[in-house]
Amino acid sequence: MTVDTLRARPLRNVARHWRPFTAFGAVLLLWLASVRFGWVDPRFVPSSAAVAARARTEFTTGTLAFDISESLRRNITGFAIGASAGLLLGLWLGFSRTAERIVGPSLLAFRQIAIFA
After folding, report:
1. pTM (2 decimals)?
2. Residue 74 to residues 65, 67, 103: CA-CA distances in angstroms?
3. Which of 31, 81, 83, 86 is most deeply buried (CB count within 10 A of its CB)?
C-alpha cells in the first residue's frame, strides 16, 4: 500500500459515519428555510418555535404521557385484531382444501400486490 491510500482510508471511514448526520442536517435546514421563506403553509409545516412551544406545553401539563399511552393502546389493539384474523384465516386455509381452492387464488393475487408495491 502506498502512503496516499493509507491517508485516504480514514477519511473515507469518517465520511461514511457522518452521512446520517448530514442527511438529518439537510432535512432540518430545508425545514427551517421552507418556514422562513414561506414556501409552505404553516398549518402543514409549523415553525421550530411552534413545535418547541407545543412540546413545552405537552411536558408541563402532563398530557404527553396520556397521549403516548393512548396511541400505544390503539396500536396494540389493531395488531391483536389483525394478527388474530390472519392466524384464523391461515389455519382455515391450511386445514380446509375447499377453502384453499376458493380463497387461495385471491390471496395469491394480493400477495403479488405487496411485491410490486
Report:
1. 0.54
2. 14, 11, 29
3. 31
Distance CA 42, CA 53 (A): 15
Q: How many CB atoms lie within 10 A of CB 81?
A: 10
Return all residues near 64 (Cβ < 8 A) that are at least 6 apart. 58
CB atoms within 10 A of CB 45: 14
Which cell numbers hold the place of 70? 393512548
pLDDT per residue over 51-110, tens digit each? Answer: 999 999 998 998 988 999 999 999 999 999 999 999 999 999 899 999 889 988 888 888
Position 61, amino acid: T
- C-alpha cell of residue 102: 376458493
